[in-house]
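EI: anyone free to look at a 274-residue chain?
SC: sure, send it
EI:
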Amino acid sequence: MAIIKGYCISVNNMPNSSELEMAWNELKQHWYIKPYNGSIPSTPGYSFIRFIFSPLIRGIMRIKASGLNNIPTSGPTILAANHLSHVDPVLIIASSRRKAHYLAKDGHFKNFWLRQFMKMTGQIKTHREEGGDQALSSAADVLSAKSALGIFPEGTRSKKTEAPLLLPGKTGVARLAASYPETVVMPIALNGTREMMSPQTHKLPRLWKPIHINIGKGITWMEWLEDPKGGNTSVEDLKSLKEQDEHEIKARLASLYRKFTDQLMTSIKHLGAP
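SC: here you go
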């Protein structure tokens, strides 16, 4: 079952989607995000860090994680979580037990020791001056390699001081899911990370603060697209859309991206994101 916009979508009982996939692929020129390099960074020290660092984190810190078994052990996957603190990606990597690549601003690679850590764990440098398209293409490198991509749909850390702290999601996550429709998108709620390490307040994480990580059931773009409570799109709808002009096609796709993202953010909220 996958939680989408407050509903439970039974992905096991959906009809065969091969025709829908074919119709969707007929629109590929309008939605495909081409990989940036066609490869992802090697991770020579990742296994070592996971063997030493991850158990240490889980042993020292007060982390309560639920739904870990929902994360696929292989195949393209997006780990989509709310973002409150610098420690968020570290906690997801340590808890998920799946090698995950995050996009990181080039500024994170300036410090020598941080740069070594980022390289050893396969995090991907992005250049803000090259714009959002470069970031999406770098993310596409991960999914095309059938690996796991960590992403914060809000696009930045929430700086809100009063609940709800969750920001509206940006549609990049939907565009990636649509470009690689076999990708499983996992909604994840983080709670307590700001109390552990608040930006501009704490220089070091307060390891005694409790953290709750709640991982929901995943869903692919194609499963969402055909579900009446999701994209509610049929083969006939896509065939008809293909006959429209480019402006109409882009408008329809933008509407689908927005709806997918909004429902994903609602799922993250329902999982406990503050």
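EI: The CA atoms of residues 168 and 184 lie 21 Å apart.
SC: 👍
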